[in-house]
Design goal:
Layout lengths: L1 E4 L4 E5 L3 E8 L4 E9 L26 H5 L19 E4 L10 E9 L17 E10 L4 E10 L4 E10 L5 E14 L4 E6 L7 E6 L3 E7 L11 E5 L10 E7 L4 E7 L4 E7 L7 E3 L4 E3 L2 E7 L2 H16 L13 E3 L1 H4 L5 H14 L3 E4 L27 H11 L3 E6 L3 E2 L4 H5 L19 E2 L5 H16 L5 E4 L21 H19 L4 E4 L9 H4 L4 E3 L6 H12 L7 E2 L2 E2 L12 H8 L5 E3 L7 H23 L1 E6 L1 H4 L2 E7 L5 E8 L9 E3 L9 E6 L8 E4 H6 L2 E3 L7 E9 L1
Parallel strand pairs: 21-22, 21-31, 22-23, 23-26, 26-27, 27-28, 28-29, 30-31
Antiparallel strand pairs: 1-2, 2-3, 3-4, 5-10, 6-7, 7-8, 8-9, 9-19, 9-20, 10-17, 10-18, 11-12, 11-14, 13-16, 14-15, 15-20, 16-17, 24-25, 32-33, 33-34, 34-39, 35-38, 36-37, 36-39
The structure holds (2R,3S,4R,5S)-2-(hydroxymethyl)piperidine-3,4,5-triol.
Length: 734
């Protein structure tokens, strides 16, 4: 619900439990942030803009304009005129000037949500949301800025983005353009972000917010393993179940910055947008620039509630396509099974054994094209290597299909190996700066996707392979980050557009692909989980979470990922031991139970693993079929976190009608002489009675309890013999 209160000059945006309020003040039309928090009944708090306090409003008294700018809670702060906090937008005019200031011009309020040109974004029909578009202007620059807000009716989410239009007769440059900002009072917040590295992505990090600027960012051309486009400010005592959280997540897959700045006056400016470093966009007269979308969630009910808002939004209003509400085929991927050393025979042997065990799809990973027998060549040469795949790709796919299995394939479309026919023919297609040898990473360069002919080549390369056989799944990988930013196709004053144009081209390519192949299951990947973000989820419903498939490391990776993203999006596989990323041995049963919290599949040579492990696969497959609807569609709750207690991990999914729940408990390290542990179940109906059964340990007796008892008094988890043990607990209404 969005409403404008004309007398008060206040916009009030309501979601089921939250209110966001914007005020317009002074004859100069400053647009200020009044409030974001628990739902308010009335639109009346414009005193929170503090225009009654010195230093006076400029229209009435210009004497202290700088002081006014430097403390006013701007909805979209500009720079260079007296607000010395970090701005959201920077321009450089023909005259070389770099200041801007925005004043309110008009607004529109309407049902539904417009698409964002060229960009992924959440969507909803008129019944589910309302949108506010505030138009403001800087006449000195000749710039119009539209601030777009959508308030959802079915979840506590407000989205924001910004569109800049050049209204003047000449061009100007945008050197920074963020998507959203909230200026609010500091309340001794903590800042929560997700930090990581290759093979240990998205670990939760929480620290005290101090004075000055604190940010996380990526300048790597992708959302990255290292920092994540997510930031949250929380109360000091916010827990899973209680406390305030202001969270932002960016629907974008390139450079970003997420930032909190605490000012001298104890205000906080929380902002998010495309990283300004390396960014410079030329805007000709009449042209516009659309920023990516920021998803904002507020709650006073702790992390569980924040997570539920993100999950519900992404499940209903971001993920698209045939598989959005459907069980995904259980796949077996040959990467960790064979690496580059495979041929048709080997793959068919794996498929034959796998299909007999109930696995539903074979995915052929890296190494099927050109002369690629190692990671040092052939990216770009997307021609089937028939000395490996004797009889060709179609033969292999048909044989796999005859086993009753689907077939999937790996691509890394954005890359070019220096040792490839493509590079020999088009060395200028690699991103590079003239006069400097570009840095290789994994012995490869990045294709210059800002060039039309490169995009067309890439699309046809991928699509023609997909047209040649019954391929039902694509793993779209990206194994290096961008460097040496330079395009042979862009004018000198447009080189600063390359990073963003690159991301737009990835979106265009994937958009075209799922349009031509609407039944395709697309899984994104980037050296594991370096491009796990809402932008990519708009195109494919699942993303490879990490190259680390170790069940214990996965506890932290999957906890951090599931803080924002639904379990249905997390690519998770059972792999062989010792684990290839970390060398750890864990029980096969535990690996299965941990992977069950994601899309579920296998990443091993099923013809070679120990017999005892192989024999367990049919029961894991059966568990997947029994529980995947619940895992995919249910509400997710975090009960305990190994990342903080260093001892055990526990999470739960509950069906939306509260009749069925599945609790997963992982005992990381056993403790001698230790009794059973009590855990408090969440999200049940207090008035219903449930049967509690221990799925993978039938020796533990079933019990029957009310939801009330299970949630308040709890459930006992027996101590298990050994380390890395897991227990699945089924809780079903009697
Ligand atoms: C990185 C991915 O994350 C792996 O799963 C695998 O596909 C390799 N790339 C192949 O090069």
């Amino acid at each position: 619900m969005v409403k404008y209160y004309e007398d008060e000059r206040i916009f009030k945006l309501d979601t089921p439990n939250t209110t966001y309020m914007i005020g317009i003040v002074d004859e100069e039309g400053f647009i200020g942030h009044i409030y974001y928090g628990r739902k308010l009944k009335d639109a009346e708090a414009s005193y929170l803009l503090r225009t009654g306090e010195p230093p006076f409003v400029p229209g009435r008294n210009n004497r202290e304009r700088c002081s006014f700018y430097d403390c006013f809670p701007f909805e979209y702060p500009t720079g260079g005129v007296g607000d010395y906090r970090e701005s959201c937008i920077s321009v450089k005019t023909q005259g070389g000037h770099m200041t801007s200031m925005l004043s309110y011009v008009s607004h529109e309020i309407f049902g539904g949500k417009p698409e964002l040109e060229g960009l992924p974004a959440t969507f909803a029909d008129e019944a589910d949301c309302m949108t506010l578009r505030i138009t403001c202007e800087d006449r000195a620059v000749g710039m119009r800025v539209e601030l777009l807000y959508t308030a959802f009716n079915d979840t506590d989410v407000i989205t924001r983005s910004t569109r800049v239009i050049n209204m003047g007769s000449g061009s100007f440059y945008l050197t920074k353009v963020f998507s959203a900002c909230i200026d609010m009072d500091n309340r001794d917040f903590d800042m929560v972000t997700l930090h990581g590295s290759w093979a240990r992505e998205r670990h939760i990090q929480r620290k005290s917010l101090g004075y000055g600027i604190q940010n996380v960012s990526s300048f790597r051309g992708e959302s990255s393993h290292q920092d994540h486009p997510f930031i949250a400010l929380t109360d000091k005592n916010t827990t899973q179940e209680n406390g305030e959280i202001y969270a932002m997540n960016f629907v974008y897959s390139g450079n970003f910055r997420a930032q909190a700045e605490v000012s001298q006056f104890d205000s906080v400016r929380l902002s998010m947008g495309i990283h300004p470093e390396g960014f410079c966009w030329k805007l000709e007269s009449g042209e516009c620039f659309q920023t990516p979308e920021v998803v904002m969630v507020y709650t006073d009910k702790g992390f569980d509630a924040m997570t539920l808002s993100f999950h519900r939004l992404y499940k209903k209003h971001l993920i698209r396509g045939e598989y959005r509400n459907k069980k995904r085929p259980i796949l077996i991927n040959n990467w960790e099974a064979t690496y580059f050393d495979f041929d048709t025979q080997k793959l068919l042997a794996i498929a034959k054994e796998a299909s007999a065990l109930g696995i539903e799809m074979l995915v052929m990973d890296d190494g099927w094209f050109g002369n690629r027998n190692s990671d040092n060549c052939a990216l770009g040469d997307w021609v089937v290597n028939e000395s490996k795949l004797k009889g060709g790709l179609k033969y292999l796919v048909d044989e796999v299909n005859k086993l009753g299995m689907k077939f999937g394939i790996w691509f890394e479309p954005e890359m070019i190996s220096p040792d490839s026919d493509l590079y020999r023919a088009h060395p200028d297609w690699a991103i590079a700066v003239p006069g400097r040898t570009p840095a290789q990473s994994r012995q490869q360069y990045v294709l210059d996707l800002s060039r039309r002919e490169v995009v067309e080549y890439v699309y046809e390369a991928v699509a023609s392979v997909l047209r040649s056989a019954n391929i039902e799944y694509v793993k779209w990988d990206m194994n290096r980050q961008l460097s040496d930013i330079g395009s042979a196709g862009l004018a000198p004053d447009r080189q600063g557009e390359l990073y963003h144009r690159y991301v737009l081209a990835v979106y265009e390519l994937q958009g075209r692909l799922i349009k031509e192949f609407p039944h395709l299951l697309l899984e994104n990947c980037s050296g594991g989980g370096a491009r796990f973000d809402p932008g990519m989820l708009y195109f494919g419903p699942q993303i490879w979470c990490s190259d680390d498939t170790d069940a214990i490391e996965r506890l932290e990776i999957q906890e951090g990922t599931a803080l924002i993203y639904p379990l249905s999006t997390m690519g998770a596989h059972v792999s062989d031991c010792p684990n290839h990323a970390i060398g750890r041995n864990t029980p096969f049963e535990t690996r299965g139970i941990v992977a069950l919290a994601g899309t579920f599949g296998y990443e091993l040579d099923v013809t070679k693993i120990p017999d005892a492990d192989r024999k367990m696969i049919p029961s894991q497959v059966a568990m997947y079929h029994k529980y995947n609807d619940l895992v995919r569609e249910g509400d997710y709750y975090r009960i305990a976190s190994y990342s903080s207690n260093r001892s055990y991990d526990c999470w739960e999914v509950v069906s939306c009608d509260r009749t069925h729940a599945l609790v997963t408990y992982v005992q990381v390290l056993n403790r001698p002489n230790f009794k059973s542990r009590r855990i408090l179940v969440k999200g049940l109906d207090a008035d219903k009675r449930y049967t509690v059964s221990y799925v993978n340990n039938k020796d533990i007796e079933k019990t029957s309890c009310s939801g009330d008892t299970l949630m308040k008094a709890g459930l006992l988890i027996p101590n298990m013999w050994g380390d890395f043990k897991a227990l699945l607990i089924d809780i079903e209404e009697n």
